[in-house]
From TrEMBL:
Organism in which the protein naturally occurs: Streptomyces pseudovenezuelae
PANTHER family reported in the protein's UniProt record: CYCLOPROPANE-FATTY-ACYL-PHOSPHOLIPID SYNTHASE (PTHR43667:SF1)
Gene3D superfamilies, per the entry: Vaccinia Virus protein VP39
UniProt-recorded name of the protein: Cyclopropane-fatty-acyl-phospholipid synthase
SMART domains given in the database record: PKS_MT
Lineage, uppermost ranks: Bacteria, Bacillati, Actinomycetota, Actinomycetes, Kitasatosporales
Enzyme class, broadest EC rank: transferase
Length: 429
């Protein structure tokens, strides 16, 4: 066979009903598709079998992570070109069901089966997580999910995140560095919380200790940082000791549901609430409300998705759920605000910084690509490929307004009803 690329291109186009916007190079060396565009490299028949057994995003992800599928050219350009096929078409379940009944579509599927060889489902890459849905967001399942994502190795995260070791959206100015932008984000959070010397701050999901160290060093507060990751905690404790802040910063391996030493003057939750889950979110909000003193402030920094027609359905990205954030869930910002207020908070400010996350992710991709060989040695080729795809695709999702990120400032109202915020609230800007 010397025409696998042309046959593959023709069959896929017959299946999806539109021309493929990328060039294909198949395992036999043949090529097909428009010239001058990035090339999708189909290294073997197994890649086709992966797509047949799991059409859509997860099948593509399995082929990519395993190395059965690769890209020659700009990764962002390829993702832009196929975004409409993977995202928009993948969401239209009715049109997909109708297409499956079309005789031409069924004939194309049979042709792909013949081209792929024996139609046995290939085993998923070892980087994929498989678990029972019935245990979502118990303390045990949350520990496993956090360990899968964060206990990859601190050295690997240092490659991606850089010296700041902040794993959340930075706050950019034109011409600034990633480190500048992350410092400015931590300072923005500190100003929104109005941190002053002598206060107690609870940092929920403290990561590698960046917010805890910044708040203690720059604002003189005492900080308790909690995480479920053993590796994060070890790194953060060393960082605290190196900064000479052990008298002001305590890092705990602890679930937010087990914190019992409130009240705190302020609480920061930066990039953590995505792990909570819709079923537990009101509980999360009530726990933070309980831990905050009257008049205290909460800064909840959280990724949001766009509202959908059926908000009762379990909304999850298959690739991210299987390879990146097991059990992670995104909610619309309106749902987050509603749950916080149901718990008793008064929401005082919501700031969208969506474009800032796209810039942050693109910079992380540059960091990873610059030390690709070392990243592979520290983890695995599959894990490094997961991260490259996840961060690049997420950058485009933020740029295309498919997802956003918001800082929600809320107050636990005192009995007097006075929030303690200035009349012109956005003085932190």
């Amino acid at each position: 066979m010397a025409d696998a690329a042309l046959r593959l291109k023709s069959l896929v186009e017959q299946l999806i009903g539109v021309p493929l916007p990328v060039r294909i190079r198949a395992w036999d060396g043949s090529q097909a598709g428009p010239p001058g565009v990035p090339t999708l490299v189909v290294r073997n028949r197994r890649a086709v079998r992966r797509l047949l057994w799991r059409p859509g995003e997860l099948g593509l992800a399995r082929a990519w992570v395993s190395g059965d599928l690769d890209i020659e050219g700009d990764l962002y350009a390829v993702l832009e070109l196929i975004a409409g096929l993977v995202w928009e078409r993948g969401e239209d379940a009715r049109s997909l069901a109708q297409a499956a009944r079309d005789p031409e579509v069924r004939a194309a599927a049979r042709g792909l089966v013949k081209l792929a060889g024996l139609p046995l489902p290939p085993a998923p890459p070892r980087e994929e997580v498989r678990r029972a849905r019935s245990h979502l967001h118990t303390k045990r399942s949350d520990r496993r999910a956090i360990s899968h994502h964060y206990d990859v190795g601190n050295d690997f995260y240092e490659i991606v995140l850089g010296p700041s070791m902040v794993y959340s959206c930075a706050y950019w100015e034109d011409g600034g560095t990633l480190e500048d932008a992350q410092r400015d984000k931590l300072e923005l959070v500190s100003r929104k919380l109005a941190l002053t010397p002598g206060q107690r701050l609870l940092d929920v999901g403290c990561g590698w200790g960046s917010m805890a160290v910044h708040a203690a060093r720059e604002h003189g507060v005492s900080v308790v940082g909690i995480t479920l990751s053993q590796e994060q905690a070890a790194f953060a404790r060393k960082r605290v000791a190196d900064e000479g802040l052990t008298d002001r910063v305590e890092i705990r391996v602890q679930d937010y549901r087990d914190v019992a030493d409130g009240p705190y003057d302020a609480i920061s939750s930066i990039g953590m609430a995505e792990h909570v889950g819709a079923e537990r979110y009101l509980e999360y909000a009530r726990d933070l409300y309980r831990l905050l003193k009257p008049g205290g402030r909460l800064l909840n920094h959280q990724i949001a998705r766009r509202p959908q027609g059926d908000e009762s359905a379990y909304n999850v990205d298959e690739f991210i759920d299987a390879y990146v954030f097991p059990d992670g869930e995104l909610a619309p910002v309106g749902s987050t605000v509603t749950q916080l207020e149901r718990a008793g908070f008064e929401v005082r400010d919501v700031e969208s910084i969506r474009e800032h996350y796209a810039l942050t992710l693109r910079r992380w991709v540059v960091n990873l690509e610059a030390e690709w060989g070392r990243a592979v040695k520290l983890t695995s080729a599959g894990r490094a490929r997961v991260w490259r795809l996840y961060m690049a695709a997420s950058a485009l999702a933020f740029e295309r307004n498919r997802i956003g990120v918001n800082q929600v400032l809320a107050v636990r109202p005192p009995e007097t009803g006075r929030s303690g915020l200035p009349l012109r609230a956005r003085t932190w800007n």
